[in-house]
Write a structure and sequence with these properties.
By secondary structure, the protein is of the alpha+beta class. Helix content is 41%, strand content 15%. It has 6 helices and 5 strands; from the N terminus they run E-H-E-E-E-H-H-H-E-H-H. The chain has helices spanning 15-20, 49-55, 61-67, 71-78, 90-93, 110-132, and strands spanning 11-13, 22-23, 26-31, 34-37, 81-85. A hairpin with a 2-residue loop joins strand 3 (26-31) and strand 4. The longest helix is centred in the last third of the chain and has 23 residues, at 110-132. The radius of gyration is 29 Å and the shape is elongated. The termini are far apart.
């Protein structure tokens, strides 16, 4: 059985394989679903080896983007791509999207939607007739 490849011709790796690569002898990280072997870059990384080691074996997308890497850094990273995360494992690293809208649970029953407004209207009508009938 041959290796599965992505549409870009890169080998697919399972998340379990990537998670095993978290030592100083072999350090892999995931950025935007691509797998990077950063082992040889550990000592050269401007932010220090520990920055990469903290992300080793996992998804470093958020950390990578939060730092605001330069175009040069992104080009250097492109040379370290060894594959892509297998499509079946993508959901395992997806983070839920923060919603800016707060949802209100609607637990109203029929009486609060119909009876209360009807009663208020009846009381207002009664008070109107009492006030203006003099």
């Amino acid at each position: 059985m041959g290796e599965e490849k992505s549409s870009a011709g890169l080998r697919y790796f399972r998340l379990a394989e990537v998670e095993e690569k978290n030592s100083s002898r072999s350090t892999w990280i995931i950025i935007h679903h691509k797998i990077y072997d950063v082992t040889k870059f550990l000592e050269e990384h401007p932010g220090g080896e520990e920055v990469l080691r903290e992300q080793a074996g996992g998804d470093a997308t958020e950390s990578f983007e939060d730092v605001g890497h330069s175009t040069d850094a992104r080009e250097m990273a492109a040379d370290m791509v060894i594959g892509e995360l297998h499509p079946e494992d993508l959901h395992k690293i997806e983070k839920p999207v923060d919603s800016l809208v707060t949802m209100v649970k609607d637990d109203s029953s029929w009486w609060s939607s119909l009876v209360i407004p009807t009663l208020v209207a009846a009381i207002v009508t009664l008070l109107y007739h009492m006030y203006f009938s003099k």
